[in-house]
Specification:
The strands form four sheets. Strands 1, 11, 14, 15, 16, 17, 18 and 19 form an eight-stranded mixed β-sheet that branches. A seven-stranded parallel β-sheet has the order 3-4-5-6-7-8-9. It is elongated and about 80 Å long. Strand 16 and strand 17 form a beta hairpin. Helix 1 packs across helix 3 and helix 3 packs across helix 4. With 376 residues, it is of the alpha/beta class.
Length: 376
């Protein structure tokens, strides 16, 4: 692939694939509402365009991490129902009310501040309640359920939803999933008639016991692998090409990159690509003689990254291309049909989430294809 001169990396987001992924998950969730998690700039895809495409596909409920993200969704999709997962930031209740954002309340202090604002304005502003069933992250403690119930009963307040989050959903047979399901069900007994939500992408795929009234897919929407050990059924959304800057020849015994961590065992041809950790290409994708690193596709062939990844560049061994050498300005595919986010994640010892969300820091020219039935 030849890249347009001077434009650098090309990140293409397939909104049609994003919409198809949401619809596929919506079919699996059946009787439950299917929300869309669009935090972290829609996992690096761009929160504005992703939210519009997901709304066009049928999503009406959106989850973000912060109020700023909520405001971005509100601007893109005026009629969206938006939950803020990080809860109510202290002193920010008026902002949530103005923007029609629903905090996911996770502590007694948050609850008291939100209820005080409701009393002050004589309005039951909507929110969700989050209970910690085994992550020791955000959420009311289980022994606070009765206290929470008493506080809201005193004021006649009811949350829009009660939710929790699975710690091990990516491993469907993990015993903690059933434990959390049981604990969550015990919490729901304290809030009869209130809609519930437990399942993320992996929970959605693990069985209807986890669906309740709403599911909250995130990574699967963007083509990432949600469940370990299974073939990923989701369509890739992101494709990334970066330019080749130079092709050089190096000889046996010479070293490659900072720290001289890779020594060549043969005469080699190397492609220097304009893609480094400053663009979100994780340094842990560096290749050494002891450990393989990431890979990119050049001229249709998968080629290994060797040596340490630098801030702005990486080095790729293209010796196996033989005489079919690329030219400067030609594209190297970092994400696409042959190399996906999860492939790079496996090489880096991380997860596809980190690979995708790292895209937002890249120096790319972002384009969108396949509108996902966007209006207008």
């Amino acid at each position: 692939m030849a890249l347009t001169s001077g434009l650098g990396g090309q990140l293409s987001i397939d909104l049609g694939a994003l919409a198809r992924n949401w619809r596929a998950l919506d079919r699996v969730s059946a009787g439950a509402l299917t929300a869309a998690v669009v935090k972290a700039d829609a996992y690096g895809m761009g929160i504005t365009m992703a939210s519009k495409a997901l709304h066009a596909a049928g999503a009406r409920f959106f989850f973000v991490a912060t109020p700023d993200e909520g405001m971005a969704v509100r601007a893109a999709v005026p009629d969206a129902h938006i939950f803020v997962l990080n809860g109510l930031y202290p002193g920010a209740a008026n902002l949530y009310i103005r923007q029609n954002l629903m905090p996911v309340i996770s502590s007694v202090a948050m609850l008291e501040e939100w209820l005080a604002k409701c009393v002050e304005r004589n309005e039951a502003y909507p929110s969700a309640f989050h209970f910690d069933t085994g992550m020791n992250r955000l959420g009311f403690r289980l022994n606070e359920a009765s206290v929470v119930r008493q506080q809201i009963e005193t004021l006649g307040y009811a949350p829009q939803m009660v939710m929790s989050h699975l710690a091990c959903a990516d491993t469907p047979n993990h015993e903690k999933n059933r434990t959390q399901l049981a604990l969550f069900s015990s919490v729901l007994n304290q809030f009869p008639g209130i809609p519930a939500s437990l399942a993320n992408s992996a929970g959605l795929m693990s069985g209807r016991d986890y669906h309740f009234q709403m599911v909250r897919p995130g990574i699967a929407l963007y083509g990432g692998r949600a469940v370990s050990g299974r073939k990923n059924p989701m369509a890739a959304v992101a494709t990334l090409h970066v330019p080749i800057l130079q092709v050089v020849e190096a000889r046996t015994g010479e070293t490659v990159g900072y720290g001289a961590t890779f020594s060549l065992s043969r005469n080699s041809r190397l492609a220097i690509i304009a893609h480094g950790y400053g663009d979100g290409f994780l340094r842990s994708l560096s290749g050494t003689n002891m450990r393989p690193g990431g890979k990119v596709v050049i001229r249709g062939k998968v080629c290994p990254v060797i040596g340490r990844i630098s801030m702005d560049t990486s080095i790729v061994d293209i010796t196996e291309l033989g005489s079919d050498l690329p030219s400067p300005g030609e594209g190297a595919e970092v994400l696409g049909n042959l190399i996906g986010a999860d492939d790079q994640a496996d090489a880096a010892g991380t997860i596809g989430y980190e690979i995708l969300t790292s895209l937002k820091q890249g120096r790319y020219n972002r384009s969108y294809v396949g509108d996902g039935n966007l209006p207008g």
